[in-house]
Structures are given as C-alpha cells and as structure tokens.
UniProtKB/TrEMBL annotation:
Lineage: Bacteria, Thermotogati, Thermotogota, Thermotogae, Thermotogales
Domain Carbohydrate kinase FGGY N-terminal: residue ranges: 6-248
GO biological process, one term: carbohydrate metabolic process
Organism whose genome encodes this protein: Pseudothermotoga lettingae (strain ATCC BAA-301 / DSM 14385 / NBRC 107922 / TMO)
Keywords for this protein: Kinase, Transferase
Name of the protein this chain belongs to: Carbohydrate kinase FGGY
CDD domains: ASKHA_NBD_FGGY_RrXK-like
Length: 517
C-alpha cells in the first residue's frame, strides 16, 4: 500500500507548480510548468484558461504521479490556488467565453472604476470592501466585459477566478473562497462575508460562485476529471485560495502581526490583523478561516522587472545559459553585485505595469533616471533591484501610518534565491527578514489547506507542525545615509513626473489603437 498524501497545485503568473506532500509535510515530488502571459494591448494582461490553467494542472498531476509510487487512491485531498482576482466568464457548460483577465497588472477598467465611484460613492465602497477600488478589484473588470463585450456577457453563466475554474473542471461545481471573493470588490461584502445583491448594474449574484472558507471541501473529482488527470474519482477538493494567500500559509503566517513578503513576478504583502482595517491605500479581507483577518498590498512588478531586463539586455547571459555555462539570472546578479552600492546614482521607478499599492496609479510608468555614459549594465540591474526595495519601503511606511503593524516579516517566493535583492530590502527598509525552512511556495500551502479539509489538522495555526523559521537576514545600516537620499528622490521623482506619465499612457494607447486598426 502506497503512502497517503495530499496534492497541492498553484497557477502563477509565469509558471504553475504542484507538490505531493505526506501527512508530516515532507515533499514527495514537485513539478513546474512554465507559461507566458498575453498582452494584446497596453494595460490588457490575459491568460488562456484552457491552455494555461487547466492544461498546467493536468500536466503537473500526471508528472507528480509518474515521479512517485503514489497511487491515485492514496491522494486523500486536493488543494488549489491561483493568481487573482482574475475574471473569466464561462457558459452554462463551463466553457470559457474569452481569455481570462488577470489581477491588478491588468489596468483596462479605469473608466469602470470611475463610474462605480461616482454611482456608489467611496463611502459605500469602503463599507463593503474595506478599501478603495483599484486595478486589483475584479468587479470593474466584470463591468468592463458587460460594457465592451456584450455578446460575451450575454452568454455568461458564471464569472470565475483562476482556482475557481480549476475547481469547476475537477468537480463541476462553481466555488470560490471567502478570501478571494473579497477581490471581487465591490461585489462582495467583506464584513458580512456574502455577495451584495444591489450590484445588478455590474452582475447578478446568481452568476457568482458560492463562497467557502479555504479549507472547506466544495466537491469531489468527477469521472470526467479523473479520466483527464489520472486522479481518483471522488477525491475531495477544497476551496483553495489565491496564490499569495497560499504562499502566506506555506511561509508560516499563522499569528496576528505576521507578515508575508512575497517576492515573485510581482511583490505581495499579507499581514494578519486583529480585525478588518478600513484603508484607502491597501486592501482588506477575511483570511483563511473564521475570525481571521488580513491587510493586503501589492506592487505590480518585482521579479518581472528582472526578467524584462534579462530578455532585453541579457543576450550574453542567455547565450551562456543556452550553452550550459551558468544561469542568466545568476550572471546578471553578479554584474549587479560588482556595481557599487547606490548604483552610481541611478534611480529607477519600477512602475512598468502601473502600480498598485500604495499609490494606486494604473497609468504610472517605469523610469530610469540619472543615466550617464559612465553607467554599466551592472549599474542598471542593481538600480532595478534597489527600486523594488524602495517600493517595498514605501508600502511599509504607509502601512505603519495606517496602524498596520507587522510583528515579524517572513520572506516567500522566488526572490529568496536572489541574496543581493533580499539584503537590499533588509538594508533599505531597515527590517529583519525571516526565512522559513520550507520554501516550496503556494502549492505547499494548498496541500496544507487540503490537510485541514480532510481532518488531518484543525486550523491554519497547525502549519507550525510543518514550518519553522530557520534563519534571518539582518539589515546592514552602514550605507543608510545614501539610501535615505535615494529613497527621498525615488518618492519625489514620481510626484514630479506623474502628470507626464499619464500623458505618455494616453499616447501609448493611441499608438496601440492605430497599430491594431
């Protein structure tokens, strides 16, 4: 008889990952499938739900079982997570009607946000969502479909996010977790944990999936899904959550005051709070189980900036990697390490996909400022890494001003593999950064949520049976005077160029429309 285990699968922005975990938290196997986003025009960011979300899930599950002696019947629970909140309209048979609109990096619904703020008023929105509407909110994107693609909207039976779609494919049941539902602002009342009936101008509540706690079993694998995936028919599936929330669980965020700082393709923050905190700069939500709450924030870029630089300016390193002579990211990091602290005065604004918290400006643009003929590629990449740290510090400062007080900061995500980046964050934010012993990521958190669902554990605090802090990065304050100057310039540069950024955005949209016509 094979070992009893749990399955966790996470769909990310640029890759999906799955794990098989035994009941003691040991990882039996993991598998990663890379994929790409689609950007049909400025501000539009999408995934193909069949080719990316569902196909990745199937490939991962089959590879995990192939890599182990685990039999399908020995998988006692399934947890999933995904980027979010996303917007995917499906018909009565669950067939996607268009590409999925992604989370806050997709900024198409600016006019819809303005309309809803005018019709509902900011006070009403705050009373439902606990925060202002931003590009992160899914409600305005549903309205965008209704306004701009009426033929799609008229055929829609359900609006789903990423893990909701996978759950639907697995079980035939539309479901979403309460944490993720909060991302559908202003359609979800975070204080009463229910869909809001009086939002018919956007969508009927009959077109929104039932909301559950993340660990609750919402259905079981159907015969059709079993045939496609190789899983056993009848295997329990829990509601799951977004990738960031699952990552927070995997990092050991279990107590009030714990903050997860996730360094992925974008940067995300989750802080456990004693109650829902009303905020105009951050997002508020229930957390994974009853009587748990969180404040959330996110930068639109992070690791995606490093990937962009590699693809545009790292041809030498990419060729080396192709020929088996190292890793392109590691080679670029070496260049950055050879650049002096402060990157010879270059300041970068990392707003290459607009920005979410705390400035909430979907039309913000990226800037390299202060370039001279003296500067090198190493200076540029170091300045990019610094900019990520300055953006994180900006979030930390505004959180503190709003009474959101992290007790400890726990690192998570792929950025943990970049020691220069993590040290810069510690130095520039003057913060101790804790490192968990398990760094698998969101899929590990998914498996843990499944463990609660099938009765292995009682609550999310039990993650401490699987996770512990193994080390920390301490801030080096020896260069803090220069970082203070650069941080002040970082903040001032945005203030002085904001109007110009918006003019450039309008120009880019106009040029894109001309090219498409």
């Amino acid at each position: 008889m094979g070992k009893t285990c749990l399955l966790g699968v996470d769909v990310g922005t640029y890759s999906s990952k799955g794990v098989l975990v035994d009941l003691d938290g040991n990882v039996l196997a993991s598998h990663v499938v890379p994929h790409q986003i689609e950007i049909p025009k400025p501000g539009f960011v999408e995934h193909d739900p069949e080719k990316v979300w569902w196909n990745d899930f199937v490939v991962i599950v089959r590879n995990l079982m192939k890599a182990t002696d685990v039999q399908p019947k020995n998988i006692i629970g399934i947890g999933t997570s995904g980027i979010g909140p996303c917007v995917l309209p499906v018909d009565k048979d669950g067939k996607p009607l268009r590409k999925a609109i992604l989370y806050g990096v997709d900024t198409r619904a600016g006019d819809e946000i303005d309309y809803l703020e005018e019709v509902l008023g900011e006070k009403k929105i705050l009373s439902l969502a606990g925060s202002k509407l931003t590009s992160q909110a899914a409600g305005p994107k549903v309205l965008w479909i209704r306004r701009n693609e009426p033929e799609v909207y008229s055929k829609a039976r359900w609006f789903l996010t990423s893990q909701s779609y996978i759950i639907y494919k697995l079980t035939g049941k539309p479901a979403i977790d309460i944490y993720s539902a909060a991302g559908y602002a202003p359609l979800f009342d975070v204080f009463n944990r229910k869909w809001v009936d009086e939002m018919e101008m956007i969508v009927s509540t009959k077109m929104l999936p039932e909301a559950f706690w993340s660990h609750e079993i919402v259905g079981r694998v159907t015969s059709t899904a079993a045939s496609e995936t190789g899983l056993s028919e009848g295997t329990p599936v829990v509601a799951g959550t977004t990738d960031a929330a699952a990552e927070a669980i995997s990092a050991g965020v279990s107590q009030i005051g714990d903050m997860m700082l996730m360094l992925g393709s974008s940067v995300f923050f989750i802080v456990r709070t004693p109650k829902i905190i009303m905020s105009e700069n951050f997002w508020s939500s229930n957390f994974m189980q009853e009587n748990t709450f969180a404040a959330l924030g996110g930068m639109s870029t992070g690791g995606s900036l490093i990937t962009w630089f590699r693809d545009q300016f790292g041809q030498i390193e990419l060729e080396m990697e192709k020929n088996g002579k190292g890793n392109a990211f590691e080679e670029l990091s070496k260049l950055a390490s050879n650049s002096p602290k402060g990157a010879r005065g270059i300041i970068v604004l990392p707003y290459f996909a607009g920005e979410r918290t705390p400035i909430n400006d979907p039309e913000a643009k990226g800037i390299f400022f202060g370039l001279t003929l003296q500067h090198t590629r190493g200076d540029l990449i170091r300045a990019i890494l610094e900019s990520i740290a300055y953006g994180i510090r900006h979030n930390f400062e505004v959180m503190t001003q709003e009474g959101i007080q992290p007790r400890r900061v726990i690192l998570a995500g792929g950025g943990l593999k970049n020691p220069l980046l993590t040290q810069l964050i510690a130095d520039i934010c003057t913060s101790k950064l804790n490192i968990p012993n398990q760094q698998i990521g969101a899929s590990y958190g998914d498996a843990f949520l499944a463990a609660i669902g099938v009765g292995v554990f009682k609550n999310i605090e039990a993650i401490n049976n699987w996770i512990e802090i193994q080390g920390a990065i301490e801030p080096d304050l020896s260069f803090s005077d220069i970082y203070e100057i650069k941080y002040r310039l970082f903040r001032e540069l945005y203030s002085q160029t904001k109007a110009l950024m918006h003019d450039v955005h309008n120009l880019q949209v106009r040029l894109s429309d001309q090219q498409l016509s």
